[in-house]
Amino acid sequence: MGQAFSITPARRLSGEIAVAGDKSISHRALMLAALAEGESVIEGLLPGDDPRSTAACLRALGAEISGIDGPSVRVRGVGPGRLHEPADVLDMGNSGTTMRLMLGVLAGQPGLFCTLTGDRSLRSRPMLRVVSPLRQMGARIWGREEGGRAPLAVWGEQLKAIDFVSPVASAQVKSAVLLAGLLAEGLTSVSEPVRSRDHSERMLRAFGAEVLVDGTTAAVRGPARLRAQSLRVPGDISSAAFWLVAGSIVPDSELLLSGVGVNPTRTGILDALTAMGADIAVENRREVCGEPVADLRVRSAPLKACTIGGEWIPRLVDEIPVLAVAACCAAGKTVICDAAELRVKESDRLATMARELGRLGAHIEERPDGLVIEGGHPLVGAGVESHADHRVAMSLAVAGLVAAGTTKIADSDCATVSYPQFYEQLARVRQP
Ligand SMILES: O=C(O)C1=C[C@@H](OP(=O)(O)O)[C@@H](O)[C@H](O)C1
Ligand SMILES: C=C(OP(=O)(O)O)C(=O)O
């Protein structure tokens, strides 16, 4: 059990915040740099536990990675199909993205044997969604529940290209298949019901792969050679989301979030909060290394309820815990639906948010695929738990900014998974 964090209401929030580097883009930058020929330089990489898990695996597979704690990380790649066999089990910690994307990388490295594991949460998360399409490509993967749960073992094979129709809109599934397609002969395609985040497609192109995108189908042509790149990782809109909600619900607040990624496959949080009446300005739009970036200015505003579901969900899937906090402070009944995917994240986020916000006095009902939240009932501080889920911990800290008295969050330091600077930045912008 990690440390507890206690928080009392803030009078206002003000200041400028450089939010942590994007976690999704950080994983991809490390992986593609490790597979490329030559030395890549990555600036703004998230120094969080999850990208560190990716870096540790890639090192064990032969990539040279230096400066991981500094402003620019150097990665000397091994070249396609030339990863080294690791001498030990690859431990992916808490990171679903590391395990699912690395399965795609490893399955196509002929003759390479690897075992993959992670923490208790990761070992309980579904892997068949990635293992099944990879097996269709010829991959040999074993594990608990017929390969459905880690620990997993992979024996690398020469893979064949497939056209995969994914039943879930998942960037991890799409990316795993596309990464496997880099070493398969011909065009490997993935079609999904709704377009998920497209960072892999953008970055594969930047590294020199041929990527084709048509509606909700993305394809890569293999075999592909990747060339080392200089990259800059934008701020993570999923981390910015905590400030967008906090700045909206704490009275008299104004926060400027600089250099945040505003890729349209990720900006559902801006659409949802705007529909709820939030005052968010998107300033200074620009493009950085193939990703749209902007500064976001949020000022407090009275929020109203809205319905969040359908095609919005993949564009804000990680922001639902903090949107639930916004809904507690919004007039009327907010309905979050089509979000059953939240049950297979680091925790069952529908159950954990319903339980913990309920402890603070929220009127919140759990549904099989979402939450119904009757806003406007004042929150009152209490002891709550993160369930070792970084987004739950930080969402509860945001709730603590408006809950009367003291909110004490047990096991709060799991925030380091995606946002190591979170509590320090909170102390800086919080006016007591
Ligand atoms: O590809 C990625 O980087 C991610 C995709 C999403 O997961 P799914 O692919 O399971 O939807 C998201 O929840 C996760 O935090 C990061
Ligand atoms: C679900 C998440 O990450 P992952 O799947 O990589 O563990 C997250 O960061 O909210």
From TrEMBL:
Transmembrane segments: none annotated. Its EC number is 2.5.1.19. The keyword Mitochondrion does not apply. It holds the Pfam family EPSP_synthase. Pathway: Metabolic intermediate biosynthesis; chorismate biosynthesis; chorismate from D-erythrose 4-phosphate and phosphoenolpyruvate: step 6/7. The active site is at D318. Residues 8-426 form the Enolpyruvate transferase domain. It is found in: Cytoplasm. PANTHER family: AROM/DEHYDROQUINATE SYNTHASE, PENTAFUNCTIONAL AROM POLYPEPTIDE. Catalyzes the transfer of the enolpyruvyl moiety of phosphoenolpyruvate (PEP) to the 5-hydroxyl of shikimate-3-phosphate (S3P) to produce enolpyruvyl shikimate-3-phosphate and inorganic phosphate. Monomer. This is 3-phosphoshikimate 1-carboxyvinyltransferase. The gene is aroA.
